[in-house]
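4.2 Preliminary Data

To establish feasibility before requesting continued support, the project team ran the inverse folding procedure on a target of 346 residues. The structure was first converted into the token representation described in Section 3, and no sequence information of any kind was made available to the design step. The complete token record follows.
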């Protein structure tokens, strides 16, 4: 029997790529999104990517709208939820913590209540390596201490804790917290990707702004870190590899009798690359120069860290396939496509 899955934040950056992977693997997929950080362009993109024989339904709703979510869960006979909805700007979370506690934690509790009342107890949660805060080591395993240093990270950890408590409560809940390192890239079609028209703070969308002429140059935040070339190093993982891990995690939960231990898995590739290496890889991929200037370190930034991804690879029989070059090439294809269709909000 085909399993019906609801993806919250279904037309956002992560949700849209997860949706495509689920549909390709034969799941019956339903998306919910409130357009807070997404556009109908992503939904069109998903529909263009999937084969004509397949379909996906879309509901414009807040996940905090319990009645509406209950209605979708019942009408579509949903068996599992992949929960990607949430606000994700670290800087904004520092300025507006209540917004983050409300939209991330409050809405998640509403979603979980709606699920419980409809007997839906399988959930994959979009978490973040941000839960580790300032890491003590460089290769971070799931056993590393969790000590988030900003409201955004704290909301992620709070939701993880709620899910862990639900699993411990003796009820039927089976959940998995997927801690993303640095998702990058776009679907190979160039039809869906990470928005860069809305004041991005992450490296890849900012590079898209430079490449498409929306920004004069890239500020490289610091060249005096204790790294090979002095610039910050991160563990970038292709968004399609990340999306595939969600499908594997879902299969894992569907087949397991109890909630799994560990309840959290790191999604990264297990090595870091520097800002200058990303710039060079982009320049090679698109045959354009990326003008940049070295600035002081960004407050709160960490020099270098990457995932110890062995638990995800072992438990999910999953290995990331795509390279940094793939991330740059696919991002560039998406940037060219979407630059011609999006409205500039800057
Ligand atoms: C950021 C978030 C993190 C989130 C992750 C998702 C912060 C403090 N952390 O992490 O919570 O989970 O994104 O991808 O915002 N860089 C530049 N110039 C720029 C932008 C970035 O040099 O204009 C550098 C940064 O200093 C860093 C690297 O690029 O070394 C990656 O930065 P970014 O994409 O913002 O990710 P993180 O800081 O790792």
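Position-by-position output of the design step:
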């Amino acid at each position: 029997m085909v399993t019906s899955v609801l993806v919250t934040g279904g037309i956002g950056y992560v949700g849209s790529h997860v949706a495509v992977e689920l549909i390709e693997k034969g799941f019956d997929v339903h998306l919910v999104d409130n357009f807070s950080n997404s556009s109908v362009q992503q939904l069109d993109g998903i529909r263009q990517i999937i084969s004509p024989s397949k379909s996906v339904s879309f509901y414009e709703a807040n996940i905090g709208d319990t009645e509406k979510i209950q209605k979708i869960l019942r009408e579509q006979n949903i068996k599992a939820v992949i929960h990607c909805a949430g606000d994700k700007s670290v800087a904004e979370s520092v300025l507006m913590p209540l917004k983050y506690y409300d939209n991330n934690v409050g809405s998640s509790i509403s979603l979980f209540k709606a699920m419980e009342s409809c007997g839906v107890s399988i959930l994959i949660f979009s978490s973040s390596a941000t839960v580790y805060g300032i890491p003590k080591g460089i290769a971070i395993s799931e056993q590393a201490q969790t000590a988030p240093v900003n409201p955004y990270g704290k909301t992620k950890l709070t939701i993880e804790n709620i899910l862990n408590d639900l699993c411990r409560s003796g009820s039927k809940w089976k959940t998995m917290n997927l801690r993303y390192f640095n998702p990058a890239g776009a679907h190979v079609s160039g039809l869906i990707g990470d928005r860069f028209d809305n004041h991005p703070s992450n490296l890849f969308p900012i590079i898209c702004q430079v490449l498409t002429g929306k920004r004069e140059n890239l500020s490289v935040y610091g060249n005096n870190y204790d790294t090979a070339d002095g610039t910050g190093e991160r563990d970038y993982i292709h968004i399609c590899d990340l999306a595939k891990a969600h499908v594997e995690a879902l299969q894992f939960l569907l087949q397991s009798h109890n909630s799994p231990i560990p309840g959290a898995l790191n999604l990264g590739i297990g090595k870091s690359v520097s800002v200058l290496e990303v710039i060079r890889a982009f320049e090679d991929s698109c045959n354009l120069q990326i003008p940049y200037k070295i600035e002081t370190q960004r407050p709160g930034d960490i020099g270098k860290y990457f995932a110890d991804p062995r638990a995800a690879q072992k438990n999910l029989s999953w290995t990331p396939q795509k390279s940094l070059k793939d991330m740059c090439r696919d991002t560039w294809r998406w940037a060219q496509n979407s630059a011609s269709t999006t409205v500039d909000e800057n």
